[in-house]
Amino acid sequence: MSGSREATDLTPDGTRAPSGGAGEAQRRLLVADGLHKSFGATPALDGASLEVGAGEVVAVMGPSGSGKSTLLHCVAGIVRPDAGRVFFDGREVSRMGDAERSALRRGQFGFVFQFGQLVPELTCLENVALPLRLERVRRRVAERRATEWLERLEVGDVAGKRPGEVSGGQGQRVAVARALVTAPG
Ligand SMILES: Nc1ncnc2c1ncn2[C@@H]1O[C@H](COP(=O)(O)OP(=O)(O)OP(=O)(O)O)[C@@H](O)[C@H]1O
């Protein structure tokens, strides 16, 4: 994947310089600039850039194998790009150490992976509560919020089951609940 949706007037401070005279001052929450990533001889990203404003909804689309997952993994600090920079809320993710990137992922990013995302030994409720428990939220509070999200996604009935005992679709919903459980409000 190469090129960018919008890669002009880059400033890493989280604000977008006015462009086109509209007095635009949308806060840029996520900025990725010139990302390169190869797996052995396979280039997955070849200068990909992306900006996402606070509150903006963005879909990344492209053919299978074009680098969408690699891009998202790089911006979320899961994969380190070979070159290029990523800023989240003005902080440079690509320069953070492992512990700082883990804390950022736990607190600020929700991810639904394609495969193997739920911890098989935990119940679905425990899986959803996990990001909160890792942030030291008390078990009762974490499980109450996890229950609310499971019910919102219409899988409250699988709370006590383990991932191996639920359908693929139910498992995906549980993963979505886990991705959203740390969301504010
Ligand atoms: N861990 C890895 N090891 C080796 N090659 C990889 C790895 N991850 C991705 N690739 C390769 O990098 C390229 C981009 O993969 P990526 O998963 O980012 O694509 P994608 O657009 O998300 O694909 P899909 O839509 O099929 O999920 C592909 O050629 C893929 O085979």
Automatic annotation (TrEMBL):
GO terms assigned for molecular function: ATP binding; ATP hydrolysis activity; transmembrane transporter activity
Region named Disordered: 1-24
PROSITE patterns in alphabetical order: ABC_TRANSPORTER_2
Any matching Pfam family: ABC_tran
Domain ABC transporter: 30-185
Protein name (database record): ABC transporter domain-containing protein
Tree of life domain: Bacteria
